[in-house]
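Hi team,

Filling in the usual template for the complex we talked about on Friday. All components are listed, including any nucleic acid strands or ligand strings, so the model treats them as one assembly.

SUBMITTER: L.P.
PURPOSE: interface mapping
COMPONENTS: two
RESIDUES: 628
SEQUENCES:
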Amino acid sequence: MTDALKNDERIKEMSQLRRSLIRPELGGIVGTVAVFTFFLLFAFDSGMFNAQGVLNWSVVSAQFMIIAVGACLLMIAGEFDLSVGSMIGFAGMMIAIFSITLGWPMWIAILITFVICIGFGALNGFIVVRTGLPSFIVTLATLFILRGFTIFIPQTLERKTIIGGIREAAEGDWLGPIFGGKILGSAFQWLGDAGIIGVFTRGNLKGQPIVNGIPMLIVWALLLVIVGHIVLTRTRFGNWIFAAGGDAQAARYAGVPVDRVKIIMFMFTAFCATVFAVCQVMEFGSAGADRGLLKEFEAIIAVVIGGALLTGGYGSVIGAALGALIFGVVQQGLFFANVESSLFRVFLGVILLLAVILNTYIRRLITGER
Amino acid sequence: MKPIIEMKEIEKHFGSVIALAGVTIDFYPGECHCLLGDNGAGKSTFIKTMSGVHKPTAGEIRFEGKPMHFDDPRDSIAAGIATVYQDLAMIPLMSVSRNFFMGNEPIKTRMGMSFFDHEYANETTMSEMRKMGISLRGPDQAVGTLSGGERQTVAIARAVHFGAKVLILDEPTSALGVRQTANVLATVDKVRKQGIAVVFITHNVRHAMAVGDRFTVLNRGKTYGTAVKGEITPEELQDLMAGGQELATLEGSLGGTV
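RESULT (copied from the run log):
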């Protein structure tokens, strides 16, 4: 057995640099660098990289990030959730119904909405693990059911599909600002006073910085990315997520509670969708029955650009966050660069294809798939 | 010597199908017990009742002299019965060290929260792999990059590391090449010498003869009894497995090469 202890002569030595580069996030990192290089070259003077511009694409990217973290962990656990978009519309509408139509305090409306939506997530998961049906089909059903309720309930109660007045209803509430508020306002005031960022030059906001704080939406996005990354890579539960998606039967035989892991991941995805929805209704001040349309696909695209394997068992939260960043920067950057907006889809399709090809190549290097 | 597991008159019915019709076998520590049988003989069903995947319809399981009831695989793993399945032993996309500790993750506590102890996991995995004669590029190497024999060896090392008293190997050599098979059989021998009871399922008589101390042939849900090493020839085992006559005719036409 002594010769087996030596390195196998058929395995090539890998350099340290190559080894440190070959990681699931590599595709996302390369894409991010490429996209920023592109826009720095072609849209530098467009205002995309001043304070407002940065805030603009940061907010859009943060929206994608919030739902991408949930979709990423769920995909690594081997399942899909196509009901994310409908869940966003439904959650927003529930908040409006509870706080405006029923007149409940905002914090109760938000908490009850979280409970209901996470309950729907658990139901998705429960049906998937109990029936063994593909989550694709089960959550497709949920997509229609939730969207139907989102239109039916406000029409029946209020005779309209958009309910406003939420910002006023949230005034003085303690929970509302956690989703709709801004932080570091004074720091931005200081930056404005020091002339580092732009300030309003007339009107009743004269002297105040144009960017007057970091929206809580961005804080939520970063928080979810960090927590998601730590849970996935540094905890026992994270190992279970990989195992459940990698091979559910093998994981069960090793004593991993696969069903529980999957149901919790469906609940977490619903949680992320609800965070998105609450931030959105707080920002817009209204809930609409068509909110969140196609968000499930945008989340999945961000996750796949970030290097996750569609069939589960492999992926990275950091990668998914970079995928969301690429998505947001491209969408807003083309607007700044004055490119015809319909070309956004062409651009997105090309990026998606390139990212998946690169990711597949990297993954094969790591996992020895053939 | 007292048996570590006694399986008494185990029956298992799936609806109207009788998969096991009263099988009695004793397993002893430090011995490799080969379970032979053709496809559909009930080998897999039998070991799944031992590992807690199936509940027997009738019969008794005694573990270390006490009657045992396994509700799911976790129970039998906790009792010290580990099963290595042919192709479900490892998850190829995950690293060797994540696979090694799957379901038994080591925990360290930082600021009141528990985290996966990667340092301990990596060190332990590397040293256990060295003991088994497998050289890894690193603990983060994916299992998908290992050969089939190495995967079986990792799975066996994992079971032994986590204190298995009984190790069930479900056709560990059936998909392997000659050299890899030899490595796995050598591993079985090492494990047996540590006092672990090995249950080795195969339909290859030569592999069984190479490491077996006792041999039981299953056929159509029943056993033909257990033979001790030296009491039975490979030819007799082969005949028992195939139910005798037909194979004798076949062997004749093939010139005795089967």
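MY TAKE: Chain B has a mean pLDDT of 84. The two ends of chain B are 37 Å apart (CA to CA).

Thanks, L.
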